[in-house]
Amino acid sequence: MSISDLHQLFLESAGISTDTRKIRSNSIFFALRGPNFDANKFAADALEAGAAYVVIDNPKYVIDHRTILVDNCLIALQQLAHYHRNFLGIPIIALTGSNGKTTTKELIHVVLQEKFNTKATVGNLNNHIGVPLTLLSFDRETEIGIVEMGANHQKEIEQLCRIAEPDFGYITNFGKAHLEGFGGIEGVIKGKTELYKHLAARQKVAFINADDSTQVQKSNSIKTVSFGISNAKADIQFQNLTNEAEVGVMLRDQKIVSKLVGKYNIPNICAAVAIGTYFEIPIENIKSAIAQYTPTNNRSQNIKIGKIEIISDAYNANPSSMEAALKNLSLSKAARKLAILGDMFELGDESPKEHTLLIKLANDLKLPTIFIGPSFSAVKDRFEHQGFYTSFDDFELNFKQDLTDTLILVKGSRAMALERVIPLLEKIQQKVN
């Protein structure tokens, strides 16, 4: 079956399913394979659950005319997504970077929604499977699509760009994320700027933060729309707010303030405002969209438990985002502060060094800090510090401190699931009070 024929079936269906536990009636099930699973085995289950067709790549599981046999299910899914992207012909904004991708994506989304029917990546479906699924979620009513692109090695952004063919792109920053896969910070820069190369080849537009010298340097061969606070050459010039307690910016005489926590979110806000301005969203609408956006999913979330205030940023972490979060906490005027940090992953040989540097930073900032995880514990002997726990279970068993009237930062890599700290703190405070 050709991709155009498959696409026609897709248009007549209820969408794509990849999990037999979540089959939608009249959907097309793609039997994807992984290192530890082969969904071809569940083709019959998908049809029984209500799928209209199943796409498989193992002839052993052919059932009847509802079975579509392809050479490779993943490649077929990617080809279908690419075909659908060109079928719709809508503007696509691609977004990548080491930190702040999802928050920035959501800010851009709410801003553009003020004028356009906009759809964006749901959650973090930002890899070689998630990007195709995102593109296939766009329909004839969609006017602008926003596609988040994640990567942990080089050539990955290049591949995702071939699938999505973005018309616009933005790289949030270049930080110490996925160092093991990228091969160091220079590898991160090379990998992320594959987006710039794709835009340049297609004569498309990059939005750049003019305060980031790497973005300026790496985008010098592309058509750009720049924004910034400290760079007077930026196309869109922002100013800092006079009230240090607020997170936001000034654009000319307009004050734009958000519910986000942390000054490290200011570039994310600026990017959303700049992109909204480019697409001619009225400034009053932009202000309202930014002001009303409430972060979720443990991304710069502000949570109150009695007399405890928690900055929950536990969705993910790397050395760059950890440093920014700690420095932001140190600037708070709260009388009592505490950082609860979990291990950082995918750092390879740099792990001991980066965990050591983070402990040193917390000490230099004079921030009371608790470190959870084997990577932090492996380097604890270099410091006179009592707040080390080898695992969350160790922390849960032994931590009993009264944290009344304390501002607490909770942050760690996704695999640490450090959001578990929050209900634990609530239990501790209930006992104390």
UniProtKB/TrEMBL annotation:
CC per GO annotation: cytoplasm
Top EC class of this enzyme: ligase
Mur ligase central domain: residues covered: 96-275
GO MF terms, alphabetically ordered: ATP binding; UDP-N-acetylmuramoyl-tripeptide-D-alanyl-D-alanine ligase activity; UDP-N-acetylmuramoylalanyl-D-glutamyl-2,6-diaminopimelate-D-alanyl-D-alanine ligase activity
EC nos: 6.3.2.10
Pathway involvement of the protein, from the record: Cell wall biogenesis; peptidoglycan biosynthesis
Biological role stated in the UniProt entry: Involved in cell wall formation. Catalyzes the final step in the synthesis of UDP-N-acetylmuramoyl-pentapeptide, the precursor of murein.
Entry's family note: Belongs to the MurCDEF family. MurF subfamily.
Pfam families in UniProt: Mur_ligase_C (PF02875), Mur_ligase_M (PF08245)
Mur ligase C-terminal domain ranges (all copies): 299-413
Protein's UniProt name: UDP-N-acetylmuramoyl-tripeptide--D-alanyl-D-alanine ligase
GO BP annotations listed: cell division; cell wall organization; peptidoglycan biosynthetic process; regulation of cell shape
Keywords: ATP-binding, Cell cycle, Cell division, Cell shape, Cell wall biogenesis/degradation, Cytoplasm, Ligase, Nucleotide-binding, Peptidoglycan synthesis
The organism of origin for this protein: Flavobacterium aurantiibacter
Annotated catalysed reactions: D-alanyl-D-alanine + UDP-N-acetyl-alpha-D-muramoyl-L-alanyl-gamma-D-glutamyl-meso-2,6-diaminopimelate + ATP = UDP-N-acetyl-alpha-D-muramoyl-L-alanyl-gamma-D-glutamyl-meso-2,6-diaminopimeloyl-D-alanyl-D-alanine + ADP + phosphate + H(+)
Gene3D superfamilies with a match to the protein in the record: Mur ligase, C-terminal domain, Mur-like, catalytic domain, MurE/MurF, N-terminal domain
Binding site for ATP: 97-103
Xref: InterPro entries: Mur-like_cat_sf, Mur_ligase_C, Mur_ligase_C_dom_sf, Mur_ligase_cen, MurCDEF_CellWall_CoF430Synth, MurE/MurF_N, UDP-N-AcMur_synth
UniProt subcellular location: Cytoplasm
UniProt KW tRNA-binding keyword: no
